[in-house]
Amino acid sequence: MKIVDVCALYSPQGGGIRTYVEQKLAIGPRLGHEIVIIAPGDRDEVIEHGPGARIVTLRAPHFPLDRKYWYFEDEQALHAALDAEAPDFVEVTSPWRSATMVAEWRGAAPRSLVMHADPLSAYPYRWLGDIFSRPTIDWQFSLFWSHLRRLGQSVDLVVCANRDLTRRLAEGGIANSATIPMGVEAGRFAPERRDARLRAQLLAECSLPESATLLIGVGRLAPEKRWPVVIDAVTIASREQPIGLVMLGEGREKRAMLKRIAGNPHIRLFAPKRSRDEFARILASCDALVHGCEAETFCMAAAEARACGLRVIVPDAGGAADHAASGGWTYAAGDPVAAAACIREAIERPWRPAARVRTMDEHFAELFARYEALARPFRRVA
């Protein structure tokens, strides 16, 4: 089956979605499928990723708030690219303009909307949640809900990576929503990657001895990631016991985060590690992951931490919360005092690592099986 992913959120300098796309390009052909990613970029270009896998970029403007990304502007060019590919199945991975463009494409292939973003949790729920209830916020943003319902009617399947988002979409009138959790890269993340010497070095970077607890936080330095909650929680928790925090991230909020850390010697901010092996070794060498964002659609960082045998300390909403269900701790989203109490409890409690964590191979096998079932009637007609 030929699967075309119209991925407006892809960037070679991106984070979780870039990793997801790279995994799809590697795993899809192994499962017998041809994978084509259509993404906006600086130029019209075809980038081969081995047999049966390639990225097609269409010339597009940069996204003004983050110039590492672009956005689809030319609907005719996108439709022409879809016509040229003649896919058996089309994915679209942003609920914004590109989804409408795919809905308006006249091709016969079935299609899905993959919710790689949860805009309501990332923005209005975060901005207004201390003032209004979620039903009130949903009413205030009824135009967006109407847009989502139209998108749901234009596709054959809406894919969510966490149960909370699936439930909310179904309650909002998007009946064809399904939960298909993602996973971790097989063989990459494991407790055996733990390196006692590296752990000691990281604690020394945090001006702490090996007897201290080493936490890690991973993600873009963006407002929706709620880094101030993480920083404040660790600062509060470390008043009672020695705790260090290693942060791996980059983004437009870097200056604000350094100001928030304010010279705290026990919290260090480092650039992300581009080497996946190096990142896995760092992750496995820590004691727990602490995360602040309740708008995650899956929270790959928490999944990879669990696969490395770490405790996860996450908000009680969004995709991150699913990872605590099989061994972890949740706190009231957005509350650093609650997060600090959760950190202390997680450190003090006995810990049994997760028996196993779902892999990306399992995710794509389930996802593509759903696509094949949806595409079968179209093939008979053809």
From TrEMBL:
Enzyme Commission code(s) on record: 2.4.-.-
Domain Glycosyltransferase subfamily 4-like N-terminal, residue spans: 15-176
Enzyme class, broadest EC rank: transferase
Lineage top rank: taxon: Bacteria
Pfam families: Glyco_trans_4_4, Glycos_transf_1
SUPFAM superfamilies according to UniProt: UDP-Glycosyltransferase/glycogen phosphorylase
Keywords, comma-separated and alphabetical: Glycosyltransferase, Transferase
GO molecular function terms attached to this record: glycosyltransferase activity
The Glycosyl transferase family domain, residue ranges: 209-350
PANTHER family, per the entry: SULFOQUINOVOSYL TRANSFERASE SQD2 (PTHR45947)
Protein name per the record: Glycosyltransferase
Organism: Novosphingobium album
Species classification: Bacteria, Pseudomonadati, Pseudomonadota, Alphaproteobacteria, Sphingomonadales
